[in-house]
Amino acid sequence: MRKRISAFISLFLALSSSLLFLLPAPAWAQKKDKEQLKADYKASPFYQGSSVGVEIAGIGGYLLGGDILSSEIILQSNLKNRFLPTLEIGYGKTDVVNDANDMHYKTSAPYFRIGMDYNVFYLKPYLPGYLYVGLRYGMSSFSYDVSGPDMSDPNYGGTTVPFSYSGMKSKASWLEGVVGIKVKIYKGFHMGWAVRYKMRMSITNHENSQPWYVPGFGKNASSSFNLTYNLIYNLPF
Amino acid sequence: MKRLPVLLCILLLTGVLIPSCEVENCPPNALSYLHFSLVDQNGRTFQTSDTITIVGQTLANDSLVSDTLINQETAANSFTLPLSYDAYTQFIFVYHALNAGYVGRDTIRIDHRNIPYFTNLDCGTMMFYEITNVGHTHHRLDSIAITNPNIDNNEKENIRIYFTVSGVEQ
Fold first, then answer.
1. Higher pLDDT among residues B99 and A7, named by residue
2. A37-41, A194-198, B68-72: range with highest mean pLDDT
3. Domains of chain A, residue spans
4. Per-residue pLDDT, A138
């Protein structure tokens, strides 16, 4: 049920931003001559401002009863309206007990991503938004606790072994491929959503466990997908 | 610009379908077993002509617990046996030849370090082991070699039991 709710939320967020693109074309949609556009692009300044944003889909999911809280601040610069170097600083936490088997997992830590977006519509600055693709390198250093019921010998019976491990330190790094859109809402305010495909590069496991949730990456697997929804403000400098 | 709605629709579908792709990957076998291979004096796997019964023994709460794990198996060339949660497990191999009846028994004692292991919140815990020492009698068997001391839920050979096999038995 929770997955279904999050799917509907994803649909709503995606539609709400995408529909702005599909609205009847106002003055900005006037077709410009291609050569003129190229000339405008060449004449445009190299540095075209910076923006700060916050990811809110992770907070929304947590407030709706999800087990994981994850959010990040996004700092981005605009170079020639084409290359957008990006720094993302986030925080992820979970403290969850699986009701089915009483296993408990807890972690909370910051994470960092650095990378760059590429504006596919860089020649069309008159549009109210743009489609972009990007790459990120992410990393997190965290510690986690895991505990569960005593383990009983299933074959010979009798002996039980406690299962509780705290403060296990781990590091993880990963690469992300990003595809998303960003649209103007009002003056300097924008919103956008992106689909991210993450590939784990490295992770520190322990003799007694491997991390179940990695802040910034998600549930520990060789790869994962997720959807982010950002509110962005273009800084006046 | 004409292709923009198509691109957006693809992105939309991708975003909506992603949450339904979440899959928890629990390992198919959540128990770890010790894998014995029976080999001849040349290290070649062979099928024993004996009927073998194997009894597992361990200490649980200061009491000796016995369990018949294999009952009169014939033509075996390997065994997969569970270890206990205690510090050692011993296996009593009782051999019966088809014609001659009872022909002897061997005891193999495995000292092991137990490693409780967590993989996933949904899959719970498993017990892995590290073999630290092996002792045995050699009434019927010749020797024993540890080929892989780490026992987890991947099926792989851990111990080889060497028998002297005559040409007739092979």
1. B99
2. A194-198
3. 2-21+46-150+159-234
4. 97
The complex scores an ipTM of 0.78
Taking the CA of residue A197 and the nearest CA in chain B, the distance in Å comes to 10
**B residues 129-158 closer than 8 Å to A (CB):** none
Q: Which of A101, A154, A158 sits opposite B60 (nearest CB)?
A: A158
pLDDT value at residue B148: 96
Alpha carbons B49 and B114: distance in angstroms, whole number = 34
Q: Check CB contact under 8 Å for B116 and A14.
A: no
B59 close to B85: Cβ distance less than 8 angstroms: no
Contacts of B9 (CB under 8 A, 6+ apart): none
**Do A98 and B84 make contact, defined as CB atoms within 8 angstroms?**
no
Look at B7 and A131 and tell me if their CB atoms are within 8 Å: yes
- What kind of fold does domain A2-21+46-150+159-234 have according to CATH? Porin (2.40.160)
Distances (CA, A) of A203 to A19, A114, A222, B20, B86: 39, 18, 10, 25, 31
Cα separation, B75 vs B38, whole angstroms: 11
Compute the distance between CA of residue A80 and CA of residue A117 in angstroms, rounded to an integer.
Answer: 12
Question: Closest chain A residue to B55 measured between Cα atoms?
Answer: A156
pLDDT in tens, A19-68: 555 554 454 545 568 888 888 888 889 999 999 999 999 999 999 999 99
User: Mind telling me how many Å the CA of B40 is from chain A's nearest CA?
Assistant: 30
Retrieve residue B17's tokens.
Answer: 């379908």
Three-state secondary structure of chain A: CHHHHHHHHHHHHHHHHHHHHHCCCCHHHCCCCHHHHHHHHHHCCCEEEEEEEEECHHHHHHHCCCCEEEEEEEEEEEECCCEEEEEEEEEEEEEEECCCCCCEEEEEEEEEEEEEEEECCCCCCCCCEEEEEEEEEEEEEEEEEEEEEEEECCCCCCCEEEEEEEEEEEEEEEEEEEEEEEEEEECCEEEEEEEEEEEEEEECCCCCECCCEECCCEECCCEEEEEEEEEEEECCC
pLDDT score of A174: 97
